[in-house]
Amino acid sequence: SLSTYDGPPPSQVNTESWLDILEYDLPPNFDVLAKTIDFATKKTYEERNEFLADDYVFRGPIIGPITFSDVKKTQQGFQITDAFPNLETRPFGFTVDPDNPYRCYWFERWEGTNSSPVKIGKLELPATNSDVKLPTHIMSVHWTPDGKIKYSCLSSPLDRWEGTTK
């Protein structure tokens, strides 16, 4: 029955990658799934900052690796939360990586109303007052044994034609 499917067993293929530094000998002593859901559903930088390790790094399809303070500065430069004050990230589909019990993946499908201008540096795009639904993308976080996020990653859109952005 699919309702009891726990996913595949861990990979038997040995690889060498810089991500190996995010693997640990002992299993987590906390609930990675619950902690990830708690993190992903926080709304503010201040709330999310509580989860991050001092050496936290973020990477996306175009940017990164960058630190949390860089992420915050970048977002402030775009004024996304001002332009979309009702922005919801709508996280769903959380799952722990079968190859690394400290890593968790989930989907996000952002939506909100563009009720204020979008500012990109000196460029200012006027508000459209339209509802926006972005294509779904995947997020992931790597936790440390101390229960802090050391690395997170955002994927490219899974299907760029989904939503309202085309």
Task: Give the secondary structure arrangement, pairings included.
Blueprint: H1 32-40, H2 45-49, E1 52-59, H3 68-78, H4 80-83, E2 92-96, E3 103-108, E4 111-113, E5 118-120, E6 123-125, E7 131-133, E8 137-143, E9 149-154
Parallel strand pairs: 1-9
Antiparallel strand pairs: 2-3, 3-8, 4-7, 5-6, 8-9
What does this structure look like?
The protein is an alpha+beta fold and 166 residues long. The protein contains four helices and nine strands. A hairpin with a 2-residue loop joins β5 and β6. The radius of gyration is 17 Å and the shape is globular. The termini are far apart. The model has no long low-confidence stretch (mean pLDDT 87).
Features:
4 helices; alpha+beta; 166 residues; five-stranded mixed beta sheet; 9 strands
Tertiary shape: globular
Continuous helix count:
4
N-to-C span: 37 Å
Strand content: 25-35%
**Alpha-beta content class:** alpha+beta
What is the average per-residue confidence, as pLDDT, rounded to a whole number? 87
What is the number of strand segments? 9
Unreliable spans:
none
One letter per element, helices H and strands E, the order comes to HHEHHEEEEEEEE
Read across the widest sheet, the strand sequence of neighbours is 1-9-8-3-2
Q: Helical residue percent? A: 10-25%
Main sheet makeup? 5 strands, mixed
Rg from alpha-carbon coordinates = 17 Å
